[in-house]
Amino acid sequence: MPPQPLEFRVEGLERRVTQLEQLPGRIDELTLQVSQLRTEVRGEFSAVRGEMAEQGQTIISTLRGEMAEQGQTIVSTLRGEMAEQGQTIILTLRGEMAEQGAALRAEMAAQGTALRLEMEKQGAALRAELGTEMRVLHEDLVSRLALLQEGQRPRPKQARRTRKKS
Fold this sequence. Notes:
Structural class: mainly alpha
Low-confidence stretches: none
Number of strands: 0
């Protein structure tokens, strides 16, 4: 490149100096704009935070309300189902208990009848055995009395006395 004349070079330097002189003003303007932007952004972020907090509270209260409603619905549904199942269980148990009670009564009646028959058999056997024993004892007593009377002299018979009834 050929050397430039001094005038061009001075003019170029003057332009550069002029531009450099304008830089502090421009930097001040940029600093002011950045500061204003920061202030605006802070305000907007605060507003966004506030809105989010409000929406969060609204969502929380809405969810709590819905959960409470659904909880009450679930509880009442469960109570109803439990009551129905409880009634079914009670009716089933009562039926089973009635069946078992009837079967038990029938079994007890059958055992009572069998016991009566057994007792009647044993009673008859005991009566027969006692009757035989009593006859043997009676015959033994009669024979002993006869022996005793043979060894004694005969007594005159006395008239029987009748007792007075009062």
